[in-house]
Structures are given as C-alpha cells and as structure tokens.
Amino acid sequence: CLHGGRLLLLLTLTLVILDPGPCREYVVKWYYDATANGCAQFWFGGCLGNDNQFETEKSCRETCVKLSGIQPAVEEVFRSFI
To answer: Where is the signal peptide (predicted)?
Structure first.
C-alpha cells in the first residue's frame, strides 16, 4: 500500500509484522493486519517501529484495505500491546 510517499506492496506488508517500537510513550495507532485484511489498533511506543502504522483507522483502511481489492472480514481483530 501507499504510505508516506513509499509504495509498500501488499505482499510485503504481510511480512511486515506489527512493531510497537522500544520506547514507552504508548500512543494509540492503527496497523494493517494482512491476515484479516483489516486495520486494528495497537499501542505505539513513540519511536522506531516500522511503516505499518497509521494515525487513524480511516487512513489505514484507505491506504491498505481498499488497495487489496478484497473486502475486510466482518469481524476485525483488535489487538493492543503494552
């Protein structure tokens, strides 16, 4: 998906696992879950991490879910990490 001016192929995103980063600021962000073809919340530590993070669910869905061409699962998995 397109994010931050870089093209992240959906195939690649399936390999980009959630990375909350090592810091402990704990900000709610959204990430693309390729297994569910949906977006879920997580606690971002505030530094490092990877490109699979979005400020809002809407931006995640518009960037990743729509580009996949597959409708998301009815029940999306919401995970939180501390």
So the answer is: 1-23
Which residue do the tokens 């991490």 mark?
Answer: 49
Which comes out higher in pLDDT, residue 73 or 34?
A: 34
Distance CA 73, CA 56 (A): 19
Question: Could you report the per-residue pLDDT of 4-29, keeping only the tens digit for each?
Answer: 554 555 545 545 789 999 999 999 99
Q: Global pTM?
A: 0.67
Neighbour-count burial of 33, counting CB atoms closer than 10 A to its CB (0-12 exposed, 13-18 middle, 19+ buried): buried
The DSSP letter of residue 61 is: I
Query: What domains lie within the chain, and their CATH numbers?
Result: 2-68 (4.10.410.10)
